[in-house]
Amino acid sequence: MISQEKLKSLKDKLAQYESKLAFKMKRYRGVIHESAASEMKHQEVMVLKAMVADLQKEIHMLENQP
Percent helix, strand, coil in the chain (nearest 5)? Predict the structure, then answer.
């Protein structure tokens, strides 16, 4: 039962971070060199991508548990 609650919580977080990532990707053009703002946006996008990937991995592991 606890794993089902955790799975639901993780799926909710995943949906939240996927929507944030989609919003950030709308105007993302990569890193414009010598632009601190561009580099900060790039770092934010990379962090969101990593968070989404980690959540997907954890959800996959919980769903495939015996």
Answer: 80, 0, 20
